[in-house]
Amino acid sequence: MSHPHPELSEPPALPEGGLRVIPLGGLGEVGRNMTVFEYDGRLLIVDCGVLFPEDHHPGVDLILPDFGPIRDRLDRVEALVLTHGHEDHIGATPYLLRERGDIPLVGSELTLALLDPKLREHRLKETVHHKVKEGDRLSLGPFDLEFVAVNHSIPDALAVAIRTGAGMVLHTGDFKMDQLPLDGRITDLRAFARLGEEGVDLFLTDSTNAETPGFTPAETSITPVIDRVFRESSQRIIVACFASHVHRVQQVLDAAHAHERQVAYVGRSMVRNMAIARDLGYLKVPPGTLVDTKDLADLPPQHQVLISTGSQGEPMSALSRIAQRNHNFVHIEEGDTVLLASSLIPGNENAVYRVINGLARWGARVVHKGNALVHVSGHASAGELLYCYNIVRPRNVLPVHGEMRHMLANRDLAKATGVENVVVAEDGVVVDLVDGVASITGKVDCGYVFVDGSSVGDITESDLKDRRILGEEGFISVIVVMDSVSGKVSAGPEIHARGFVEDAVDFEEIKQPIIDALDRAVAEGNTDTYQLQQTVRRVIGRWVSGTHRRRPMIIPVVIES
Ligand SMILES: [Zn+2]
Ligand SMILES: [Zn+2]
User: Which residues does substrate bind (predicted)?
Assistant: First the structure.
């Protein structure tokens, strides 16, 4: 967890007529996006997403934004605006609603539909929904919202313009500028220009690909590659992609139809999301193409296609289990083709290559980003961002959605087009827009909130440190029984180790030094159990680090008898 800006303290009271921006997630990381806007004592939240844990978060299921800074003001929240249906934008919504269930939710048809099963999973029934589409305007308290179509790697994404007495904010959400998208719905640059003419005082822009020069290639550039893979495959084809990438699934369905194959979905979220997308008309399934997994298995392999989750190597996903040949009904065979039609999110490299190796070991041909153009990003590259700055001509810019390097690259792009004031802030850093000028005015405490099984926020960074030590170094327990009358060791030390050195004989040489140290401590008048335990810990800890160069977790137990 980073604590940037040690020089900053709590921000002063917001001047009348000013707008405060409090980023609670997504600035300094790719994930758990959440930004709070405050005007005239009222709050508006844009997005409420999750971050997926990495190897240094053992046992953690999800990471949430920290609601701490607004927890005592949840009654003042006018609405939560959801820009699109990706997990890093909607995934934490149920956790926020568990704290106040009737926060109005504002989003497009598909975004709200993808959120719905999550709300039901958390048994949230009394939720309030405002379904909006591009061009709509909606007034909530002092916030006047206008929605703008943007093109991204999920359909029905929206940018949002927020008008208040402090001026106009334009938040792009996640976007790119594919000029020939599969659904024909382009980023509405005419609206961006119109808002720019009116005057955008603060422009929040997606930084994800700010370091990537040029333009993000069109989605349609993948179509011939998918077609070639289908043409060259004489057996079963398994395609893995994000369970929300409706357009990628559409491309695979179309290719399957053209090559006389039938398709089944594998993985709970894929089945669920694609049913939603189909019901709402965002996914057009060619007649007769989609079948049950059971029926698919009855077809000859050259007529089978599976569309699966697990493109990031997630250990419990369908694709991981297929690679280990322990999936219930999909048995990978020599000559099968696996197509990973997805990006490789930083941090997932090892997991993804483990899956690729596993599949290749069974004789499958694996086509992935590293050897073919099977994925294009959902985010605007530098060239597209430059266009946006020139079209919108904002007074102030706040780069969002990215690690520090992405946000700094985005700042440089804005500056290159002549934007004078670009504010780079991380999570918790407060930015005020007062008299048309945005500046950092303070910071609020906000950290990572870990979800572990059913517990939310109980696991701390120090628990994770313990888990990492246990995982990497193992642990040693030392049990000593002391006679409370004589002050002498009456049994033990009994030493057990797990994940360290299994052979108990190794510990023989340290037993006497422990007894001697305890004798000395008692002779010096230390009879407190806690202090005696610390003595044991010190002796064995020094020995372990000296002889074995290791720092396992040590659990000393002194029992008085
Ligand atoms: Zn997204
Ligand atoms: Zn995102």
Answer: 375-379
